[in-house]
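Hi there. Long-time user, first ticket. I'm pasting a complex I've been working with (about 949 residues overall). I'd like to know whether the download I got is complete or cut off, because the file seemed smaller than I expected. Thanks.
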Amino acid sequence: MTDPWQPIYLSAKVFGHLAQGLYRTPAGAIKELVSNSFDADATLVRIHTGFPRFETFSCEDNGTGMSRAEFERLMNRGIGSSYKRSSTTLFTNGYKRPFIGRLGLGILSLAQICTRFELSSHHKDTKVAFRATIQFPAYTRKEMDKINKTPSSAANDEMIHGGQYQVTEERFDPSKQGVRVFTKYLRESFRKRMRGLQHLANKKTFGLSGPYKTFVAYLEAIYGYDKTIQSLNLLSDYDQLLFGLALAAPLPFEDDRNVVTKLPMIRERQSQLRKFNFQVHADNLTLANPVWLPSDRDVHRASQCKLTGSEKKMFSLVDGAAKESCSVIQHRVSVENSDLQFNLYEMRYANENVAGSPLAFTGYLFQQTGRLYPRDIQGVLIRLSNVAIGKYDNSMLIYPYAEGPRYSMVSSELFVEQGFEDALNIDRDSFNELHPHYIRVQSYVHCLLHDLIFPETWSEEKERNKARRDVEAKQREASFVERYRKTTGDPVRSIQRVERQAKSHKVSNPKESPVDFEGRRGEIEIDRGHPLLQPLFRRRKFAPLLEKVVVAFERANNEPNAPRRRELFYKLLGEIFSDL
Amino acid sequence: MPEFDKWWNDLKKHRKRLRHWLPHWKALAERIGDGHPLRYFTLCARSMIDVFMLVREGILEVDLSNNSICRVQFCECDQEQFDEIREMIAREDAGFFGRLEQVVLFEDDDFSGQFPTMESISLKLEDEGLQADLPKLDKLLLKQTFFNVKASFPYDCVNLDFCSYYYPKPPGMLHINRTVERFLDWQRRPNDDGTSLSEFVLAVTCKHDSQFPQEAETRLTELIRSNCAMSPEYKEEIEKSRGTARIEDWATRDREDFFFAGWPKDIARSAKDLGWSMEVLDYVYYRRLGDANNEYVIACLVAKFSRANPIRPDVQTALFALKPENRQFISEIDRGSAEGQQLVQNLETIVVLHNEQARRKQRPELPSP
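Hi, the file is complete. Here it is re-exported in full:
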């Protein structure tokens, strides 16, 4: 009996397409090389982008290297099935790092930036070294698709080449242990983007794009202490590449640049990342996690911030029929010599059975009172095996409600500890949004934001804004009183509001002035219940201004002499408007 | 232990650096003045002793904010050394990748000639079809490097330590000579502020041995013959000092002397044609034993080029090179001798600087000299 199930065959051409470019950005492609180095227990990766001329590109690590056999296996249909990780080996031998690579596609990532490259490897275990030249297919996708239209299409398709390579053996040199990739055959589109927009950047934006003396100097420019840079999109591709690489790599934060390092959970992660002993140098800059929080114009350093209190808060996670009660720890962050208050939420989630498999993650969510800049650190970033997947998702994983500018005040990172791998797309830069683990994380974030964080933000914001307005109004009034005193010579100390009508239950006389200049202790009293003023004060927004105008008018009106009356009124009016 | 260039700690070589290069660079730096830091082009090897010697002497400035060495450029065709040197200089724009002669002597063919500017090359390189045609692709990439190297000129000090024959075996016998000539040409490019370079110092190092190509000797013969035709003084000097009027006899009898007398004229002639007045500042040589026990000579010519008017006749350089007393021989230096100890000490201080930077950059350190 024949099996009714027929196998589905994939076209070998898929790999041809992959070889033409799998990654969205150069940083996404180069990130794969860094991940390979991480998996090879390298302690240092050196990347040279070829800045500023972009004539050559190189990436070199001091890891265990790749054996010739492994390389040849990859070249012969091995791409897409990495040996690195199996069910028994989840961690590297040396530094016990969790493996990042899964499919063995890292080497293909270079197709994004070059058409041909040289790879040399000095393999620690086999003590064998080799040098290989790899050339990606010269034909375009369009030409590749034409292959199907030839008569023997099926056979041709099977035989499609993902490029070609040649290998020569070299003398093993332990000082060169690791893998080195070098090319001068950079795609012109890469060069153009790196070089060309530099020009645009200089013209239209902030004149960044290196050279930078240190990575901190680069980030100081990005976080714009002199000039706020709203988005990395306004900068050159080179600037974006540096940021993207640093963000993606499994690197610790710089302690004093990120307030989240005050959380025990993050400190633990920092120490774990440091134990991995992994450094990435890009164009002579030592990279670190580039996220600096707070990213406030007046608060630059974590040492300016203090965690002042913490509280466990509960919220309900609803994911379709699944309902769970979850908790976060809310930490209040106060800033020295300032009344600024930020919030830092510590998140932990673990569930043994999310659509049949376990899912666990930790993370933080930082909430500032003003917008976070650059925009590229607003939203949610998911890290898998310490590597960032894509960029910060500004949509908060497609949050469905309108929350105004509150979106832009939140920066969050989620560190997946278990599960989620299958939700990752092949480019390792995005997710399958229909995967149950993705949906669960999405629901978690949405419920947390909608039920806990944003409602609190609304009320806090309201109170804060009201308090701020009151303070400002008081300051403005004090300033006006001072100017009034100087202009009129009256010993006035403050302005008081009364509603005679309400207080005395008597109707104010519309023929009398609504302002009493002979109040006690140098107070000017405005009767806001006066029939002439009542309609004016209906719009609260303008009340403080109107009060002053009324005072000015009435005071001037008290002058017997018409020219003096006019002069005083205009002088007081001038004082009022000079304060606005 | 990674391999550094074999001769980095050779005391004769270091004497050349210290006594025959450095004083001229120092003097030039002083003449240029504080406001105009010296621009240096080198073919430094991985050990970068010349670069760190200039750093030590304060001639090359170091930006302490990132320990980068300012205003030095190099050219290197080994990709690993290229990256390492660039990191040690700590400036990404410090190097040009490629073989210097190949880059500098780039000549258009029918294909590359269609793309006269960087922009037109860039447009052509976008053509994916070109990726399959490696020779054409290489040609355009080389042309880009050529434009970039050219644009980096002029320099105040140029140190071309070729360590090979000045006239290699044909074809390409004149490659190095033409490279030097092109350098002299590009040195006429304006400074960043639009002014012209008034003077610079060039050091050229090359070797000579019994395998020196016959064709090169023929060229030297022609050069010397033309000197004789141009200058009776030159001719007399040959007859007096070499005891013959027959140049061929001299060339056969003392090939090394013949070489020493001949090749500087080639540079002087190019200089004159390009409007530079050449004055030889130092002419030194020393002997070495190669890996196959083969003896050879390293010769180094240090010359100042200026916009002096009138331009010194090239035959004066030829006459200078002709007189053996103008050539300084560096004999073997015993490490225990006073001079040997002094040179080692100096080298040690340079190695300290090199190794400090190497540690910062996690690159191999030089052993004690």
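A couple of notes from our side: Residues 198-206 of chain A have pLDDT under 50 and may be disordered. Chain A touches chain B through 37 residues (CB under 8 Å).
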